[in-house]
Design a protein that fits this description.
By secondary structure, the protein is α/β, with parallel strands linked by helices. Helix content is 42%, strand content 17%. The chain contains 15 helices and 18 strands. The strands form five sheets. It has a nine-stranded mixed β-sheet with strand order 6-5-4-7-8-9-14-18-17, with helices on both faces. Strands 1-2-3 form a three-stranded mixed β-sheet, with helices on one face. It has a two-stranded parallel ribbon with strand order 10-13. Helix 1 (16-28) links the parallel strand 1 and strand 2. The longest helix is centred in the middle third of the chain and has 21 residues, at 174-194.
């Protein structure tokens, strides 16, 4: 019997678990694994062997397809004006793409990044979409310009994806994390109320749960502000928050970094042997954002079922093997140590939170502590005052820790603030 050199996966319905078993077997026996691309990517509707692709790590981390209530989303979005902030980013641009089939009257794509915004504009022009997609170049913290956006377009729906997200960068720049993630969210959500938007869907992160870094704490404060607005009487806008983990292939994703490192010959840098993360694909995350946004009654924080966490070291080893190489022989894996603010395990729920089911098995509602909106407004004003009057980052982060008491810094210069809090309480 001749040995097998290659396995071609031509099925698009094979369960991910079974696909992983097949790939693991092949990698253990030096069998190259190829896959047939989706029909939409066949040249002029025809397939030839040149189109076979080496199977990607993303294919092995995907889960079973999500079933969403398209009719409910369509009934809400059809004929409406929709604003997407951060529209040029990984999540924002995919939300724009997924909104198109629901035929909104208009999508306003707001971003501060000129070239990426231009790129998504060109992509939509090439698609020939009939939906009117308007690019609006602005920083969300520019209140006057954002007011002009709302005044001109009066969006019915707002998907707020604009945020600074890189943990080590925000640990170095806490003023910008607060300015963009907290004050920016305040500006956009207040304008949604002022101009009577029907729904405001905020994109949050698992790093907002028991935050150990500035970025996570800033997103938790943004969540609190949006929740507080939702609790106010005489506000018609429904405020909904969605919270999920790392997204495969997003800007700055670990997978993209590993690909670059492998192609350069290594080494692959992993921060810690035991570090794990939750992963979703970009389309999967955005589908759940649309679904949660449509089902929310206002005030909820929706948590997505992220599956099982993935060990990053295992991910690195499998990616090396998928390139036909041997870990720590052809390409080394090195451990660089946890970065400032980083923790080993992400959580999707705070210790004090419980969840309730929704009609969608992959979407849960987090039960979080209520906070007085008057207190939230006062605290946010104090943050704005610190930003406008001083560059004292210790003072700013100290105030963040007051507002988010579960925020305990990890591997960060701001740990000294936690020591002070502990000594005072003792």
């Amino acid at each position: 019997m001749q040995p097998i050199d290659e396995l071609v996966i031509a099925s698009f319905t094979i369960p991910t678990k079974r696909k992983n078993e097949l790939v693991d077997f092949c990698l253990d026996h030096d069998i190259k694994v190829l896959s047939v691309p989706p029909y939409s990517k066949w040249a002029e509707g025809k397939f030839n062997s040149n189109q076979l692709q080496t199977i990607k790590i993303e294919d092995l981390l995907e889960r079973d397809p999500i079933i969403i209530n398209n009719n409910q989303i369509r009934s809400q979005i059809k004929g409406k004006r929709v604003l997407v902030t951060g529209a040029a980013g990984s999540i924002g641009s995919e939300i724009v793409r997924q909104l198109l089939p629901y035929t909104p009257e208009m999508i306003i794509m707001c971003d501060q990044a000129e070239t990426p915004l231009h790129n998504i504009e060109l992509e939509l022009q090439e698609r020939g979409t009939r939906v009117n997609c308007v690019s609006f170049l602005s920083d969300i913290t520019n209140e006057k310009r954002m007011d002009g956006l709302f005044d001109s377009f009066k969006p019915h729906y707002v998907y707020h994806a604009a945020a600074y997200k890189h943990v080590p960068m925000m640990e170095l720049c806490p003023t910008e994390a607060v300015r963009n993630n907290v004050i920016g969210t305040k500006i956009v959500s207040d304008l949604a109320v002022k101009y009577h938007a029907e729904r405001f869907v905020m994109i949050s992160t698992d790093k907002a749960v028991n935050p150990t870094n500035v970025m996570g704490a800033s997103k938790r404060m943004a969540e609190i502000y949006v929740q507080g607005l939702s609790s106010e009487k005489n506000i018609a806008t429904k405020f909904i928050t969605t919270r999920f983990g790392n997204v495969l292939g997003s800007n700055g994703s670990v997978i993209n970094r590993f690909k670059e490192q492998i192609e350069k010959g290594g080494p692959l840098t992993v921060t810690h042997p035991n570090i794990t993360r939750y992963f979703m694909t970009i389309p999967e995350a955005c589908q759940l954002v649309l679904e949660a946004g449509s089902m929310g009654n206002g005030g909820e924080i929706f948590v997505f079922d992220m599956g099982k966490p993935v060990a990053i070291a295992d991910l690195a080893r499998k990616m090396i093997r998928l390139y036909g190489l041997i870990p720590n022989i052809d390409v080394n894996i090195t451990y660089s140590g946890l970065r400032p603010g980083e923790k080993l395990y992400e959580e999707l729920l705070n210790d004090a939170e419980n969840t309730t089911q929704t009609y969608h098995e992959k979407i849960l509602i987090a039960q979080v502590r209520e906070v007085s909106f008057e207190l939230v407004k006062q605290n946010t004003l104090e943050l704005e005052t610190i930003l406008s009057t001083t560059n004292d980052e210790m003072l700013l982060v100290g105030k963040m820790k007051e507002l988010v008491p579960e925020y305990i810094s990890n591997n960060s210069i701001y740990q000294q603030l936690d020591t002070k809090v502990i000594s005072i309480s003792n």
